Amino acid sequence: MRIQSGDCGRRCSQSAGPRENHVIHHQTSAYRGLIIMTTGVSTATTAIAGDLKPTIVNPKNLYDPTPNGYSTAVIAPRGARLAYISGQGGQDSTGALSPDFAVQVRQAYANLRAALDGLGARPDQVAKLTVFVVDHDMSKLEVLTRNVKETFGAALPAQTLVPVPKLAIDSMLFEVEAVVVLE
């Protein structure tokens, strides 16, 4: 949905000023039943004009997830193309899987990095991760958090962890998929 300045049909204090401010202001409207709020968030890391990096949003009135290796939300800039990376497991270049969870996680993130390289993308262009963990328990969070922080630094993507009883390959313990904002 594109909103041009003045064509929204609402009275608004944002009608004056740069068109981008008006568009962002109106992204607080409903979209397919969801309310999307992108203004008034004082902890947003904003994209530079012309830069297609995602904008990280961690509202101050919510728990700060950054110590745990993720962000609350990430906004893909208008006009950006998205790429979807299939789940990357912990297989090495021969297809072998270590029985060790930490080794599989480290290798899966190395595989994700190789997929990003294949797209000509960087870790700071990842908007969303979905991770699948076999027989998840709290002891695995430290391994997951460490690997995410090593891979993404301060550009922590939004992330969802899904505990599962099993993955596609019997000995696979971890899988990560990603949504990437391409430049």
From TrEMBL:
InterPro entries: RutC-like_sf, YjgF/YER057c/UK114. Gene3D superfamilies: RutC-like. It comes from the Bacteria. This is RidA family protein.
